[in-house]
């Protein structure tokens, strides 16, 4: 009997050893998030299974970058997931940038980030690299710096699709026609083309006057008062033939470089075309007394600055958008600059849908009004009747059209507000009319906060990691062993 118990005990110990050895060789993880944020989407898995060639990803990283960006732990896990789901067609390698010169890394398009940290009471600047190079079908794309995985799945998917299109000669797949005032495209709207190009769109500016608009390409139009009658007629014909388009247009022209005073647009051919299709862009101006942006302005006597709530620059909260629509992927509050209201005519076009509303504390002004930020606009509207206004509308059939009643939303006005999501929203709009819904939805994946807070004291972080490893590698296995031993001895005594 003693030999039997001794044999059982030895088998139990051997089982623990085997489990430990096997678990160290196998890769597995559990995604406990409700939305499965750390699991590749069905769209990405299908994309990986239909690769025409192998994808090679090289992670150029500094040896200590993980200390300053703990969320990079998830990047390593996600890349392993790509490799597992690709059936051998996704190769991942890590390159230590300390073995390369700064010039060599910069030439690859990998950009460093400088982080200030404390080391023995001395401030030290760490120059850190963490960039991805993706190679596929002879093409290369680069993510200059990555510190989390929030947009990783979207970026890799769009890069693969873009590189495939370029290699196969499908240039039109990623091309968008652009109509904008040439005098403003390199100044007020200088962010537009670079933002679209970074999203892998080939931008085709159309020169005025326009006889025809390419029917098979999506169209982006910015502004309206510079468009002549024949060009407006070409746009009208494009829409009648079920062309896909997004319009950033206003009912007023604002003196952006001067007094900020608006003037209604009259005899605007493009606005007439949009009204023919059911989108009436009014010459009023919407303002919101609660959801607005605070501007830093100089005092009248030049003695310092002050913060002013400016109701004509409206922040659009999550409650003000048509949630669930792919165009609002990865939504952060939009800032609308001097927007006009939109009336939609369902009798003329029953497919029209409002997409963005101002808040419940908003109203519209008509005719003569002041937009001077130094005036007390709030006192003037204490007894006003408030009503939300539509400032974005669209249709999904017979073709996709979006109309945003704010041509300043994607201008350099965002420099005042830091609202870079306005530009991301523009990209979303173009991707939406390009029928890239599945790609857009990848932006919605939100990931959990990093497992550790960021520490300036490296010794404190090392101590914390040591204690965590001590618990997981020694105390926890020892506890399991003792528990098993206890159960074994108890069973023996019962017999």
Low-confidence stretches: 448-456
- Tally of strands: 22
Quickly count the domains: 3
Structural class: alpha/beta
Helix content: 25-40%
Strand count, sense and barrel status of the largest sheet are:
7 strands, mixed
Brief write-up:
The protein is α/β, with parallel strands linked by helices and 495 residues long.
How would you explain this protein's 3D organization?
A 7-stranded mixed β-sheet has the order 8-7-9-10-22-21-19, with helices on one face. It is 34% helix and 23% strand. It folds into 3 domains: 2-27 and 457-494; 42-163, Glutaredoxin; 176-444, Rossmann fold, CATH 3.40.50. 33% of the residues are buried. It has helices at residues 2-25, 42-49, 65-68, 72-85, 102-107, 152-168, 182-185, 192-198, 229-240, 269-276, 377-380, 414-417, 421-433, 437-441, 458-494; strands spanning 55-61, 90-96, 113-119, 122-128, 130-136, 139-143, 175-179, 202-205, 219-222, 245-248, 252-254, 262-264, 279-281, 285-288, 292-298, 305-316, 334-337, 342-344, 352-357, 362-365, 390-395, 401-404. By secondary structure, it is α/β, with parallel strands linked by helices.
């Amino acid at each position: 009997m003693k030999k039997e118990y001794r044999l059982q005990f030895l088998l139990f110990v051997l089982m623990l050893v085997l489990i430990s050895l096997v678990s160290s060789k196998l890769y597995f993880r559990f995604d406990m998030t409700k939305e499965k944020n750390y699991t590749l989407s069905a769209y990405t898995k299908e994309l990986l299974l239909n690769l025409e060639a192998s994808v090679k990803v090289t992670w150029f990283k500094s040896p200590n970058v993980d200390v300053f960006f703990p969320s990079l732990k998830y990047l390593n896990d996600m890349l392993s997931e790509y490799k597992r789901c690709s059936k051998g067609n996704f190769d991942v390698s890590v390159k230590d940038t300390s073995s390369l010169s700064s010039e060599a890394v910069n030439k690859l398009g990998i950009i460093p980030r400088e982080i200030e940290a404390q080391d023995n009471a001395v401030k030290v600047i760490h120059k850190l690299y963490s960039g991805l190079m993706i190679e596929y079908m002879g093409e290369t794309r680069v993510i200059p710096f990555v510190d989390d995985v929030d947009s990783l799945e979207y970026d890799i998917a769009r890069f693969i699709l873009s590189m495939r299109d370029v290699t196969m000669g499908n240039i039109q797949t990623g091309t968008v026609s652009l109509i904008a005032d040439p005098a403003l495209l390199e100044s007020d709207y200088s962010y537009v083309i670079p933002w679209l190009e970074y999203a892998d769109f080939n931008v085709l500016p159309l020169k005025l006057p326009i006889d025809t608009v390419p029917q098979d390409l999506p169209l982006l139009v910015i502004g309206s008062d510079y468009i002549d009658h024949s060009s407006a007629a070409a746009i009208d014909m494009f829409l009648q033939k079920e062309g896909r388009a997004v319009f950033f247009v206003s009912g007023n022209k604002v003196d952006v470089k001067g007094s900020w005073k608006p003037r209604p647009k009259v005899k605007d051919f493009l606005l007439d075309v949009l009204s023919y299709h059911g989108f009436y862009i009014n010459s009023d101006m919407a303002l919101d007394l609660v959801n607005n942006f605070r501007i830093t302005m100089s005092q009248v006597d030049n003695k310092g600055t002050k913060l002013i709530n400016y109701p004509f620059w409206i922040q659009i909260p999550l409650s003000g958008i048509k949630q669930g629509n792919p165009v609002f992927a990865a939504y952060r509050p939009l800032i609308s600059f001097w927007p006009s209201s939109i009336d939609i005519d369902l009798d003329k076009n029953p497919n029209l849908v409002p997409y963005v509303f101002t808040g419940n504390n908003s109203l519209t002004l008509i005719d003569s009004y002041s937009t001077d930020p130094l005036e007390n606009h709030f006192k003037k509207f204490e007894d006003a009747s408030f009503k939300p206004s539509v400032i974005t509308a669209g249709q999904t059939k017979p073709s996709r059209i979006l109309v945003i009643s704010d041509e300043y939303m994607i201008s350099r006005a965002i420099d005042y507000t830091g609202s870079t999501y306005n530009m991301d929203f523009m990209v979303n709009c173009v991707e939406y009319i390009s029928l890239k819904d599945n790609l857009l939805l990848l932006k919605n994946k939100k990931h959990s906060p990093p497992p550790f807070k960021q520490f300036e004291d490296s010794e404190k972080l090392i101590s914390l990691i040591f204690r965590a490893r001590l618990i997981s590698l020694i105390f926890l296995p020892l506890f399991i062993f003792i528990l098993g031993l206890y159960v074994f001895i108890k069973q023996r005594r019962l017999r």
